[in-house]
Amino acid sequence: MYQESLAAPQRKVLLSGKKEVTPDNLAEALAQAIGIEIATIPLYLYTYYSLNRSPDQEAMQAAIVPLLEKAGLSPEEAAAKALDLSAEIMVYANKAGALIMSVVVEEMLHLALSSNVMQALCGVPELVGKSPVFPAVLPGHEPVFTMDLAPFSLDQLKTFLKIESPDEIHPDLLRAAPFPYITIGKFYEQIKHCISTCDIPFRAAPQLVPGRGYYIPNSIDTVYYDKQHRPQYANAGDSGDLIEVVDKASACTAIEIIQHQGEGNEGVEGLLPDNTPNCAAPRIRADYDDPSGEELSHFEKFAQAWCTYKELTTRLEPYGITADTVRSWFVLELPVNPKTAQYPANLQKLSTLLNAIYTYIFVMTEACYKKEGNTQYEIFIFGIHKSMIFLLNSICGFMTGQKYTNDKGVEVLAGPTFEDYAFDSASSPKAQLLALFNEAVAVYPDIQYLGTRLQDMPDVAL
Question: Rounded to two decimals, what is the model's pTM?
């Protein structure tokens, strides 16, 4: 991706000139890289679950028609335009959800790829208990910016763009970090330089490898429909896959997949001085991360989502349809940076169960680097796929439909907190999950149907 020469002494410093990756600190650098990937997953998921991907078209039309008539359109013109605008908003809401989930899927791939590199060169990756506490910062990023668990908005998309930006973003403040870096891609470039130029032995140990069905680029949550109701897939099959890391070449390939999927290709325009994308630039076929030119990089997905939403809301303002009104039609007003402790007792039981399932995903993923063959396969397919796609998805969806009265006396929606759950070593994590489920289902019997799925989960030790 980054083709600049790395030969000393002309080599461009990629980590703000403060600390370079060497064989002695490679494990620390890879741990930080893994931490970056872990940090993005709950952030993107939270915003995804704030989206209503199937908003009420009739309700939107009913709200839009009188505003259009007030702006001077005839009843017939207003009805026709309201139908078209409501369809456009429906497509956008569904597509925004698909794009965000498609990035989550690839962030999980990046977590596996960076963990494979760690496993091959330094030892078993440590994944459990590494989720950030929000509000959070991206480990090592300069300049520092705050990441919030927050519902969908232009500001939230702006945060996503800062994370995936191929260029330096404009500074807020600086903070000390183990490995300061300007962009994630440049940080990975420094890791790649160390691996490719130094003689570091590769060890044989279990990894998440291709060809076993572990990585699936698309699911029902990464598909959206255009205005002609044709299915569109947010991820492409040739964008990237798991790589078994056995030598320098395979390690570099794994890193390049992370770079290309995230920031895209070298030379693509980054953010403007206000850290927003340049919507005047051509963004239709702007930056693909796959050979067939069918999938946009993470940065480009978020840039197009930002520009499309900005253009849509700007276009509707003359009719008296405000940006807040448009947003209210498809965004759930979830709390910002919620904590389980802030919820009433009944919701705490549901939130704790959700956090335990979320944490167990990392317990199982880490176990895959200690197990081989059928055991690893069963953990990943029957555990991680089931928990991420079904259990976590189901409980997150259920939780965002629950209301409670906050400390200001206002009734608000609840949101998943994505906090690390501290499993007790006295019993197995699965046994504790089942106990937490029994407590939650006693309060929320509607989730009873999840019990069988939870019972079928692999029993993985800490």
Answer: 0.90
